[in-house]
Amino acid sequence: MRHPVILALCLGGMAALAGCGRGTSDAEVQRALKDVNVIDESNLSDIMLTVGDPNEAVTYFSNTLAQNPGRPDLQRGLAKSLVRAGKPQEAAKVWAALVQSGNGTNEDRVGLADAHIRSNNWSEAEAELNRIPPTFETYERYRLEAMVADSRKNWKKADSFYEIAAGLTTKPANVLNNWGFSKLTRGDHAGAERLFTEALTHDPTMFTAKNNLVLARGAQRKYDLPVVDMSQKERAELLYTLGLAAVKQGDVNVGRNLLREAVETHPQHFEAAANSLAALEA
Question: Repeat TPR: residue ranges (predicted)?
Fold first, then answer.
């Protein structure tokens, strides 16, 4: 007997809610829906910029920007996606348009400078960095400043910028590796060795730093492998690098032995090392 009463109460509640709904204007409903869409779009944009396929991200941001022209966040997303997709020249055009529109930030100018560097347009990158006030101090800004100084062979300024950049990040392995490579190209092999070693203390898995470290040691005729974590395959590849470095230094017999060890160490057939060894033995 109580069921009809409960049903009546439920129906009454639904009618009351329906009555409240009538007081809500269509404009308010549209605003609410728009807020939800913005949140969903923001989440999708974040996904596209991190885990999404770069080319799919370019398509997404291009289409969304066509529907919402002039939106800075979409322009920014498109530029970043173009960089990820290996199209820095196109990214530079998008970032330049954003900066020139007056809606860009100093961070966007840094992004534009980065795109110019990736496009090998060093003068444009330097000009863009010069437009950023010195009070804007970020890791990315000083990393690029260091690279530009390197391209100008302004070693003192490059060292200063690399040091600042390394101090502005909790993950300095990449910038320390870049700094070490800069030292290596200048002929400061001991300084390069120190920086590559420091980079590996922050990221023991960085094979590029391991390979560069072996190059720096080989240039000093240090033909033993450094004490760093390495797999069997990595060991073979580092022995190969060291062997070539020895040959370049004129220590042919040492190089031959290192190449032979590289071939024997590699878990599969190491064609590059085998060919180099065959050429030496011939």
Answer: 236-269
CA distance 263 to 120: 37
Cα 80 to Cα 47: distance, rounded to the nearest angstrom? 13
CB 247 within 8 A of CB 217: no
Residue 43 tokens read as 């989440």
Which stretches in the chain have pLDDT values below 70? 1-45, 51
The whole-angstrom separation of Cα 198 and Cα 271 is: 32
* Rounded Cα–Cα distance for residues 236 and 63 (Å): 48
CA gap 203, 213 in Å, rounded: 13
Helix, strand or coil, per DSSP, at residue 165: helix
pTM of the model: 0.79
pLDDT digits (tens, 9 = 90+) for 102-132: 999 999 999 999 999 999 999 999 999 999 9
List, in order, residues 6 or more apart from 78 with CB less than 8 Å away. 58, 61, 62, 65, 91, 94
Instruction: Give the pair of three-digit tokens for residue 147.
Output: 């690279």
Residue burial 233-245, b: 16+ Cβ < 10 Å; e: rest = ebbbbbbbbbbbb
Check if the beta carbon of residue 127 is closer than 8 Å to that of residue 158: no
Q: E-assigned strands of the chain?
A: none
Long-range contacts of 205-208 (CB under 8 A, 24+ apart): 205/229, 206/173, 206/174, 206/177, 207/234, 207/237, 208/177
